[in-house]
Amino acid sequence: MRQGAWRSRFSYSNRPGRMRRCGASNGVSATNSFVLKTVKLQTSAAGRMRPFFYIYDRNEDTLAVAEAEACVLADGEVVGHGVVEGKARIACAETGFMRAGAELLARGRTLEKLVGCIRERGLSADRYRIVAEPIPRTVGGDHRAIRAVAACIEGPADLRNPTEEFLLVVSSGGFWFGRLIPKGCDRWREFDRRPRPFCNAAPLRLVRAAIGLSTQPGDRVHDPCCGSGTIPFLAWTMGRRAYGTDRSWPAVAMARENLAHFGCPVTIGHADARATDYQSDCIITNPPYDLYCPTNESTVPGMLASFRSAAPRVTVITAMDLAPLVTELGYTVERAIPVRRHDFERTLYIMRSPE
Ligand SMILES: C[S@@+](CC[C@H](N)C(=O)[O-])C[C@H]1O[C@@H](n2cnc3c(N)ncnc32)[C@H](O)[C@@H]1O
User: Fold this and answer.
1) Among 157, 223, 277, 343, which residue has the fewest nearby CB atoms (within 10 Å)?
2) Of all protein residues, whose CA lies closest to atom 25 belonging to ligand 1?
3) Do 224 and 251 belong together in one domain?
4) Closest protein CA for atom 27 of ligand 1
5) Sequence-separated (6 or more) residues with CB below 8 Å from residue 253
6) Which residues contact 289 (CB under 8 A, 6 or more apart)?
7) Is the peptide bond before 136 cis (omega within 30 degrees of 0)?
8) What are phi and psi of 216, to 5 degrees?
9) Where is the domain boundary, 138, 160, 180?
10) Are residues 157 and 192 in the same domain?
11) Predicted structure pTM score
12) Is the pLDDT of residue 288 over 70?
């Protein structure tokens, strides 16, 4: 594939997505296809502090990281099982685990309270559609809730060709209703179909969340154990200035081929992570843990010792218990988030290097 083809090939909008099948739009402009937009909105005139709500993936194995990602990106907090209210507007498809979000129009502990709230504010819409999200999926009552809410909206419903879309969360803990935020672009998922896959590769959604939790757009992000290039690639798609290195020449070649396939201009170099001297804002890496990827007792300690002088922030995805080692090396652990996949336990460590 020619250079730049990734951007141009994916520059159209409204590609059908998963939510779209159940009724949501997926609009995104060509220019913002890749960069995660976290636009902080000012507090409204009414003084409401939390203008948005979001739902996120509630798979038990990844619940802790999904919650952390939703709270940090939305700049808010969990207000119900699987629901976060926050101050920031997020395109959910550009995150790892957030599923949908809306501008909050009304909420209520019961359906009657929600309906009262919508009636009070008076809502009219031209050709609208309501997308309902029952939490948990088995909670039921969503059809009744849709009918009750629709009865409060002045204007015609149009399920096929709506001009406005609303999100209605129906849960045992309460009801949330708002104007759906376009989901954004999830084309980064195509990296799962890279030409050179790697059995040791980090899961894309987890990496996506790790980048969002540890860095801001524009930050220099270095992965010194880049393997097939997952972290540099996703960092680039999220508007970070990415760089990757690996000690293995076959890994360097694999990452270069994968990135070139998607027209990603990130440089991949050859280096030993135990002697990292490239200065970045954040190291994000998934070091070897002896599973298909031989290592010895001094490899990871040697890497972590060297990262301290190369970046003020270090984020590590690993199956090892790093707690004693990083404490000894002077790191401050800001978060240690467990992530499971079947029987395989990993931890996402988000740390600050010693001053
Ligand atoms: C778990 S894999 C990383 C997978 C990568 N995150 C991906 O998604 O493809 C660990 C990588 O660390 C590399 N590695 C092992 N020892 C290293 C060292 N001392 N310096 C740099 N890289 C090393 C291996 O070659 C391997 O590619």
Assistant:
1) 343
2) 248
3) yes
4) 227
5) none
6) 295, 300, 318, 319, 320
7) yes
8) -120, 155
9) 180
10) no
11) 0.86
12) yes
Q: Which domain holds residue 220?
A: 188-352
Q: Which of 4-13, 126-135, 289-298 has the lowest mean pLDDT?
A: 4-13
Q: Hey, which of 234, 243, 247, 270 would you mutate to test ligand 1's pocket, going by the most ligand atoms within 8 Å of its Cβ?
A: 247
CA distance 302 to 307: 9
pLDDT confidence of 292, banded at 50, 70, 90?
low
What is the CA(233)–ligand 1 centre distance, in A? Answer: 15
Q: Between vectors from CA 17 to CA 11 and to CA 21, what angle results, nearest 5°?
A: 140
Protein residues whose CB sits closer than 6 Å to any atom of ligand 1? 198, 200-202, 224-225, 227-228, 230-231, 246-248, 251, 272-274, 286-288, 293, 299
Burial 33-62 (b: 16+ CB within 10 A, else e): bbbbebeeeeeeeeeeebbbbbbbbbeeeb
Contact 283, 273 (CB under 8 A): no
Q: In the block, which residue shows the tokens 């909105």? A: 41
Same domain as 138, residue 88:
yes
CA gyration radius for the chain? 22
pLDDT, one tens digit per residue, over 212-260 is 999 999 999 999 999 999 999 999 999 999 999 999 999 999 999 999 9
pLDDT-derived band at 26, boundaries 50, 70, 90? very low
Query: Where residue 239 sits, what CATH number does that domain have?
Result: 3.40.50.150
Tell me what the mean pLDDT of segment 94-101 comes to: 98
Q: Which of 203, 202, 178 is nearest to 74 (CA)?
A: 178
